[in-house]
Amino acid sequence: MKPSVGIRDVAQHAGVSNATVSNVLNRPDVVAPATRQRVLAAIEELGFVRNESARQLRAGSSRVIAYVVLDAANPFFTDVARGVEDAARDAGLALFLCNSASDGGREREYLELLHEQRVEGILITPVDAESAQIAERGTPVVLVDREATDGTRCSVAVDDVLGGELAVTHLVETGHTRIAMVGGPLSIQQVRDRREGALRALTNAGLPADALTFLETKSLQVAEGRGAGERLVGLPASRRPTAAFCANDLLALGLLQSMTQQGLRVPDDLAVVGYDDIEFAGAAAVPLTSVRQPREQLGRTAAQLLLSENEPDHEHRHVKFQPELVVRASTALKRRS
Amino acid sequence: MKPSVGIRDVAQHAGVSNATVSNVLNRPDVVAPATRQRVLAAIEELGFVRNESARQLRAGSSRVIAYVVLDAANPFFTDVARGVEDAARDAGLALFLCNSASDGGREREYLELLHEQRVEGILITPVDAESAQIAERGTPVVLVDREATDGTRCSVAVDDVLGGELAVTHLVETGHTRIAMVGGPLSIQQVRDRREGALRALTNAGLPADALTFLETKSLQVAEGRGAGERLVGLPASRRPTAAFCANDLLALGLLQSMTQQGLRVPDDLAVVGYDDIEFAGAAAVPLTSVRQPREQLGRTAAQLLLSENEPDHEHRHVKFQPELVVRASTALKRRS
DNA sequence: CCTCGATGTTGAAACGTTTTAACGCCTGAG
DNA sequence: CTCAGGCGTTAAAACGTTTCAACATCGAGG
Known about the structure:
2 copies of one chain form a homodimer. By secondary structure, chain A is α/β, with parallel strands linked by helices. The first copy, chain A, is 41% helix and 17% strand. Chain A has 3 domains: 44 residues, 434 Repressor (Amino-terminal Domain), CATH 1.10.260; 122 residues, Rossmann fold (3-Layer(aba) Sandwich); 140 residues, Rossmann fold (3-Layer(aba) Sandwich), CATH 3.40.50. Chain A has a 6-stranded parallel beta sheet, sandwiched between helices. In chain A, strands 7-6-8-9-10-12 form a 6-stranded mixed beta sheet, with helices on both faces. The mean pLDDT of chain A is 92.
């Protein structure tokens, strides 16, 4: 291993003091051009790399923020992350991504680590409501795609109740009266909100609440959607829903697969609405009707909110975006047979 | 902001020296149980969080590795990342994910940052061959899904030539003699290798090399696949390929979308083979035949290789996995019309 | 009673930066 | 010639931890 060249080696090699080297690094304008060149040459020659730990220890700030993502395998979150990264980049900060994989333990570990690393700020889509009570330890935290219930921090979210309402209203308008909702676990706020929206849509249409069959899943992943599909088909035909609203697109894709596999047609035998409108939704077996969320914007706004945290007169804000329904083939008008 | 409680505050509060607190943190067995309890209580009470910068500065090691991923939006890489994370976790290391987004500039920036952070090691899927010449600065680097040409570092890859050969051999066996390959840019080694395999398959089957039409794309993303589909359909019918081999599944999904949109059927009008076998491949409009790579294992092995770097008698290794063809509906046997 | 080793604890010196106040030098004005 | 002021540079003091050698304390063995 290299003997680790430090700032003083550079200083010696350039015939200046280490303070000057530090100035070249941090305030290049304050040092005379000639000296600067000499120092830069020395840096180049010796292959000096600034030790960020030492810098941070002394200076206090880290120029790094982190986004603790709920599920890195879900394209929705990678899109949000892109928005975050763009904003971070514009502000001259680097972004570290951590994947909690919906595991409260991992989430806690990463938060602990990030606190220890003294990152400038943390964006997080928490695993569940309890974990949203993230121990405040001086590091600013902004909730992403979750609404902060108390006023202790900022949050950026999308109106999930409205999203659910849009989806189910659309299903009702295309002629369905027995509708399934697939999603879970109910510990996730999103799922609860989307269900609430779904129920509201039924009420608005004058349908009874039991027109909605709730199929709870253990997670929001493709495999669970397949499982739900099997459960759905297992229901007695008289009670079987003619449409399904899935709490996200991954579930919807799984459901779609399951339908095809069991020889049922979408939308004729079952109409399907997803949520998130990820890129793959349009490329699915049957292009998926889905509730679109402003993903990049969500991330971008969250990052901006985080950056505003250390402004002197900061006030915690809760930004809420509106979702939008994108209609595709999976919910073509029900034939009045 | 909190007045930042440090190790000496804890020490004072527990009535011991800071050295003892440090011992409780790092070598709990060496300190008497009673003292340990007292210190732990003080830590709890004061909400002390160890300052990792200071620790790292003094101790030298960081307990963190990083994976610089080529495209976080590509499920292939998130799966690889999952493997990396599992292995890192087993070794008690945390993983930071960085997304170069196929941008050489970003990649360089992140590498610089990671060097400055003095991470224990770096896994990277480099943007292109030149960037693979990653300046060695004392931090171990392992290439992921790329083969290191020189013996200066470890690498973990999959035999892409074989993968291309499998794919195109399959197409030839199902009766195709005019085949398109969609992929690019050619600066990516993978694309070149997969094409080479494709050509080898043709040779093996006694077909001329010009049986393969190469449609170069600017990236490996869905949108480019759609574009390629339009170009493909634009070809005069007599010369139009009857099958397409895509350099990855995203392209294949885009191609599929484009076909559906233009009223062509898969596999009847065009058979399609993808690459990677991401989860969405099976859920596509037409379930996609694809070349499967051992994704998690790729990541896991890479991380293990990285960890072995600082063993005393380490020798750089190049692990190469075998891909496997998964046949689905998108390449059903061509009808001998 | 003295010595020895084991066991727990500690004081102080690092680690590699940033930062602050002070310094020397030069120029131009008086 | 003196002096004020600006400019570029520097010595030295932090930052919060780990680590190492040294130091108490105690029980056991001589």
